[in-house]
Write a structure and sequence with these properties.
Number of strands: 6
Number of helices: 11
Helix content: 40-55%
Strand order of the largest sheet: 2-1-3-4
Largest sheet: 4 strands, parallel
CATH superfamily: SGNH hydrolase
Shape: globular
Radius of gyration: 21 Å
Structural class: alpha/beta
Strand content: 5-15%
Number of domains: 1
């Protein structure tokens, strides 16, 4: 029995050392071309774009759902689409954007609904990828509790780095989830001319699901930070597939009630951004180009009065 315990401990120790080595020291060649690395390009755009400007922040409902150039042209103000992926988590991406906000900016948050009632708020494997292989400086944004929430995703990501990765060919086609799939404004555009796929609607959720008070309080604190910099803050609902919206109508209503109770500035009702299923590309948050054009026009109309007033 003693030998068995010692062998088990030795195996656990060796496994732990291998995983730590993979996580901290082993490079991940695939990351250079992965969409997560587009975070660095968005940082650069934020650094180089003069204020005042409009900054969109959220998940892939933004990165796969805007034509920022049109918004910029119509409203005559620089636009940066800083949205990337919901699995990075709102808690991280709002902290990540803080150093880039300046006086006169208009910061527009458009989070996916799951951020309000699931652990997606803290991020998942995609955030682990960012923190260890894309932007290690981002680790400073995490507190102890946040690390604890991410802990379950770290071993799996370390294991994934041990798998052999083929070197990318110079002539390889750019995929819709490639770093180069983003244009100079931060919009994913490779899918604009591709046919849509069948998208299964989001499953109905339990009537017991509750909006997290922590998430709402976090947004309130973020708004205070934005305002302290003499910048403005707004919330815009994401574009959402109609059939998925029907399955989530109750929780969406709860989200809106919670935001209203906190007196957070929501510029439009979510029903307005409930789009026909035919306008979505490959998920119930990713719009096709016709859907992007419609949403972009709607956002321009919603923002025109705000930008004029300022």
């Amino acid at each position: 029995m003693k030998k068995f315990i010692l062998k088990t401990l030795l195996f656990a120790l060796v496994t732990g050392i291998i995983l730590i080595y993979a996580l901290l020291l082993m490079p991940n060649p695939a990351i250079e071309h992965n969409m997560m690395s587009a975070l660095l390009d968005k940082h650069k755009r934020l650094e180089q774009t003069p204020s005042p400007r409009i900054i969109f922040i959220g998940g892939s409902n933004l990165s796969f759902g805007l034509d920022s150039k049109k918004i910029e042209e119509q409203l005559q103000i620089p636009v940066v689409n800083a949205g990337l992926h919901a699995a990075i988590g709102m808690k991280y991406y709002l902290n990540d954007i803080k150093p880039y906000i300046r006086k006169g900016d208009l910061v527009i948050l458009s989070p996916e609904y799951g951020q309000f009632y699931t652990d997606a708020f803290y991020g998942r494997t995609e955030l682990v990828c960012v923190l260890f292989d894309v932007y290690r400086e981002g680790q400073m944004h995490l507190d102890f509790r946040h690390w604890c929430r991410l802990l379950k995703f770290i071993p799996g990501y370390a294991v994934s780095k041990l798998k052999p990765t083929k070197k990318r060919s110079k002539n390889q086609t750019i995929s819709v989830y490639d770093r180069k799939a983003f244009n100079e404004h931060g919009d994913a555009f490779i899918h604009w001319n591709l046919p849509r796929k069948y998208i299964k609607p989001a499953s109905p959720i339990s009537a017991d699901e509750q909006v997290s008070g922590e998430v709402v309080s976090f947004i309130e604190d973020f708004e205070d930070h934005v305002n302290s910099l003499s910048a403005d803050f707004l919330i815009v609902p994401p574009a959402y597939q109609s059939s998925s919206y029907a399955n989530h109508a109750a929780i969406i209503d709860s989200v809106m009630q919670a935001l209203a109770k906190a007196d957070l500035p929501v510029i439009s009702m979510p029903e307005k951004y409930r789009f026909d299923d035919s306008l979505f590309f490959d998920t119930y948050y990713h719009l096709t180009k016709p859907g992007i054009d419609i949403r972009t026009r709607m956002l321009i109309d919603d923002l025109r009065m705000v930008v004029k007033r300022d």
